[in-house]
């Protein structure tokens, strides 16, 4: 996701740089301040669209995931980002001890938890 954001920022900066450079040299030797104003307004609108479509939703997802990680307790059924299903056996400062179905214990970093399992009706 970070690579997509960096690529988008580079593309946006390239487009805005070309636009600004083209407006620096007025055609016919006249100064046209309204075209510069429109270019700046266009850049502000592009940044606002970029913010509301990419940056804001990503930060919301990051906050929700951090909230999920901080609220996990012993006994919660979880799924890791690697697709491992298990139950939290114990909690350490920077990791969880996960008990999988075969009874094995696996130590996982807190950042590797994808989410809670939905409760299955049995």
Q: What is the CA-CA span between the terminal residues? A: 38 Å
Q: Could you give the order of the helices and strands?
A: HHEEEEE
Mean pLDDT: 83
Largest beta sheet: strand ordering:
4-3-2-1-5
Radius of gyration from the CA trace? 25 Å
Helix tally equals: 2
Major sheet details: 5 strands, antiparallel
Shape: rod-shaped
Number of domains: 2
Percent strand equals 15-25%
Task: Give a brief rundown of this model.
With 122 residues, the protein is an alpha+beta fold. It contains two helices and five strands; from the N terminus they run ααβββββ.
Task: Map the helices and strands.
Blueprint: H1 2-24, H2 33-71, E1 77-80, E2 85-91, E3 95-99, E4 105-109, E5 113-116
Helix pairs in contact: 1-2
Features:
2 domains; 51% helix; 5-stranded antiparallel sheet; 5 strands; alpha+beta; 2 helices; single chain; 122 residues; SH3 type barrels; 20% strand
Fold and architecture overview:
The chain is of the alpha+beta class and 122 residues long. The protein has two domains: 2-70; 73-116, SH3 type barrels (Roll), CATH 2.30.30. Helices cover 51% and strands 20% of the residues. It contains two helices and five strands; from the N terminus they run ααβββββ. β1 (77-80) and β2 form a beta hairpin. α1 runs antiparallel to α2. It is rod-shaped and about 75 Å long. The mean pLDDT is 83.
